[in-house]
């Protein structure tokens, strides 16, 4: 790969990229030769180039070309095992050959209607012009094919070496043209642990409100990628510090409650970020109970205390209370995630974890009955393993003795849950009699009474454990007789 002169950090990145690009070269260079034979330019662009410098190979490759979409489609149809034109209106044609998936896009110069959520696509004439419309310089590098010539008109390699996010053109123009790029700045800070260049950051502050013209679905996609990144805290701090969060997830900066002069409560915002970090540390590998990265656990950890600002009360004795903040927080979580167009199951699960996150704190003295343990497991349902991790992560006290006491108490609760699992089917608790048996024993048909009887037997099952069919039948008849009395 031919290169311009470079400083030592860039040279090391170039060596790393050369190794990655050499591995992908057979497929990429052959495709480049096909385009050249047809009289067109082709270059590997964007994320695959950046990731090559970071030592991360990819089977999903993005290319830019001087060819029109129709010309690209003809070349890819001959090159690949399959091809598709789903992005043809934007100049993009996709194809697959073996395990390699490619997307080839005609050089573009996007123009934006200031009030529109979508770019007006105009095809460009040069690779440099195409790269100038990219979001950040680290994504505005390319490798011309089949020659493997490195192209870097905006010094993206130097920014990559310094771990800096900077726009190829003036950031005010870039973000005004496409406000979603501001969300991507936060996302890349989380994914790559890069910092945003001061001028670029200032532009985000100035233009933060422009994000409101972007569709909720696109904002949510970027926010989810941020939350699932290796270092979400870095991205969240960009959102909050620039004011972008005020328009995307305002409940997050609202956690920055003013600390009163007596410091009677924690910084809830900082506490929430710590809980998120600690929950991530408890995610498991692919075969574990909570494989990471887990969107539900991470969102619940971040949002578990969003009910506190609305419930904060200064008590007469000098304390601060947040009564029922878990219930208020569950409602706020549901409202916000709906606004961001999350899927129903994600909204339901995250809100449920927020609602349950304080339940354990009644266990501190170890006074729970078996019935209470059963209810804890039943109420958590399939979210139990996530609730375990959220509850443990929620301990951010600097008092080591208190932290150890809480950890020991939760370990004890987990041991009791395990013991009950050995004795009974605690994860799927049902009454000892089903609806058909209840109708047969009472000699009645379907109706409201069957549901009432079922709930009565379920309560007995929760309180006493398995009753057995004979005892359950006796209890059912007693309940029925008392009802008629």
Automatic annotation (TrEMBL):
Its cofactor is Mg(2+). Coiled coil: none annotated. Keywords: Magnesium, Metal-binding, Nucleotide-binding, Nucleotidyltransferase, Transferase, tRNA processing. It holds the Pfam family PolyA_pol. Residues 44-166 form the Poly A polymerase head domain. Gene3D superfamilies: Beta Polymerase, domain 2 (3.30.460.10), cca-adding enzyme, domain 2 (1.10.3090.10). Residues 194-253 form the tRNA nucleotidyltransferase/poly(A) polymerase RNA and SrmB- binding domain. It comes from the Bacteria. CDD domains: HDc (cd00077), NT_ClassII-CCAase (cd05398). Residues 268-396 form the HD domain. PANTHER family: CCA TRNA NUCLEOTIDYLTRANSFERASE 1, MITOCHONDRIAL (PTHR46173:SF1). This is CCA tRNA nucleotidyltransferase. It comes from Myceligenerans crystallogenes.
């Amino acid at each position: 790969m031919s290169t311009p002169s470079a400083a030592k950090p860039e040279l090391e990145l170039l060596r790393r990229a050369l190794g990655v690009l050499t591995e992908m070269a057979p497929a990429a260079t052959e495709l480049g030769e096909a385009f050249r034979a047809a009289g067109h330019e082709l270059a590997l662009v964007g994320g695959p180039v950046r990731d090559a410098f970071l030592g991360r190979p990819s089977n999903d490759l993005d290319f830019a070309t001087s060819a029109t979409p129709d010309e690209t489609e003809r070349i890819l149809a001959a090159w690949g095992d399959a091809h598709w034109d789903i992005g043809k209106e934007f100049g993009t044609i996709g194809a697959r050959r073996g395990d390699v998936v490619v997307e080839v896009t005609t050089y573009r110069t996007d123009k934006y209607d200031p009030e529109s959520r979508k770019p007006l696509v105009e095809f460009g004439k040069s690779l440099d012009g195409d790269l100038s419309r990219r979001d950040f310089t680290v994504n505005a590098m390319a490798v011309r094919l089949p020659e493997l010539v490195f192209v870097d008109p905006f010094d993206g390699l130097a920014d990559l070496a310094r771990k800096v996010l900077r726009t190829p053109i003036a950031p005010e123009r870039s973000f005004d043209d496409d406000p979603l790029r501001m969300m991507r700045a936060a996302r890349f800070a989380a994914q790559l642990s890069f910092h945003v260049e001061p001028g670029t950051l200032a532009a985000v502050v100035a233009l933060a409100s422009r994000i409101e013209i972007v569709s909720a679905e696109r904002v949510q996609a970027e926010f989810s990628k941020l939350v699932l990144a290796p270092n979400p805290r870095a991205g969240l701090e960009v959102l909050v510090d620039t004011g972008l969060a005020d328009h995307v997830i305002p409940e997050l900066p609202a956690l920055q409650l003013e600390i009163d002069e007596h410091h009677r409560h924690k910084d809830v915002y900082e506490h929430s970020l710590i809980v998120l970090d600690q929950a991530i540390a408890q995610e498991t590998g692919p075969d574990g109970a909570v494989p990471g990265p887990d969107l539900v656990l991470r969102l619940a950890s971040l949002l578990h205390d969003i009910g506190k600002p609305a419930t904060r009360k200064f008590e007469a004795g000098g304390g601060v209370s947040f009564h029922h903040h878990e219930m208020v927080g569950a409602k706020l979580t549901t409202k916000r995630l709906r606004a961001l167009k999350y899927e129903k199951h994600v909204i339901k699960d995250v809100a449920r974890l927020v609602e349950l996150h304080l339940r354990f704190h009644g266990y501190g003295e170890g006074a729970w009955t078996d019935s209470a343990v059963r209810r804890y497991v039943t109420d958590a349902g399939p979210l139990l393993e996530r609730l375990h991790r959220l509850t443990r992560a929620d301990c951010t006290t600097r008092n080591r003795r208190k932290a150890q006491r809480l950890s020991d108490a939760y370990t004890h609760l987990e041991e009791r849950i395990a013991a009950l699992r050995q004795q009974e089917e605690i994860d799927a608790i049902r009454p000892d009699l089903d609806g058909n048996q209840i109708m047969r024993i009472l000699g009645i048909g379907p109706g409201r009474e069957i549901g009432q009887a079922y709930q009565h037997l379920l309560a007995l099952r929760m309180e006493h454990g398995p009753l057995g069919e004979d005892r359950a039948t006796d209890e059912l008849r007693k309940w029925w007789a008392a009802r008629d009395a």
